[in-house]
């Protein structure tokens, strides 16, 4: 299973939903809390070009935010992406 990394905050409702969806798939994401480590927010923006959380990576693939993750799940594309070696 691919490693999942998620830039997040503790209070973001979309981060909570992303955690829940990933947990349903048996995945615990490695979280980088941008509200605890201010330099990580700049890192996230530099890497993704986006300022909102969550920003989710499956392996080296930038999935995007919760809406993007949810769309992958609805389209049946999330499981294969998680399983890719």
TrEMBL record:
Keyword line: Cytoplasm, Disulfide bond, Electron transport, Redox-active center, Transport
GO CC list: cytoplasm
Domain of life from the UniProt record: Bacteria
Gene Ontology MF: a single term: glutathione disulfide oxidoreductase activity
Keyword Transport on entry: yes
Pfam families: Glutaredoxin (PF00462)
GO BP annotations listed: cell redox homeostasis; cellular response to oxidative stress
CDD domains per the UniProt record, alphabetical: GRX_GRXb_1_3_like
Domain Glutaredoxin: 4-63
InterPro entries (UniProt xref): GLR_AS, Glutaredoxin, Glutaredoxin_subgr, GRX_bact, Thioredoxin-like_sf
Chain's role: Has a glutathione-disulfide oxidoreductase activity in the presence of NADPH and glutathione reductase. Reduces low molecular weight disulfides and proteins.
NCBIfam families: GRX_bact
Protein name per UniProt: Glutaredoxin
Lineage, highest ranks first: Bacteria, Pseudomonadati, Pseudomonadota, Betaproteobacteria, Burkholderiales
């Amino acid at each position: 299973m691919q490693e999942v990394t998620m830039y997040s905050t503790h209070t973001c409702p979309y981060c909570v939903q992303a955690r829940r969806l990933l947990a349903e798939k048996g995945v615990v994401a490695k979280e980088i809390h941008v509200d605890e480590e201010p330099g990580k927010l700049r890192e996230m923006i530099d890497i993704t070009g986006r300022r909102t959380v969550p920003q989710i990576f499956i392996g080296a693939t930038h999935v995007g935010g919760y809406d993007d993750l949810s769309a992958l799940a609805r389209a049946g594309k999330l499981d294969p992406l998680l399983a890719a070696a």
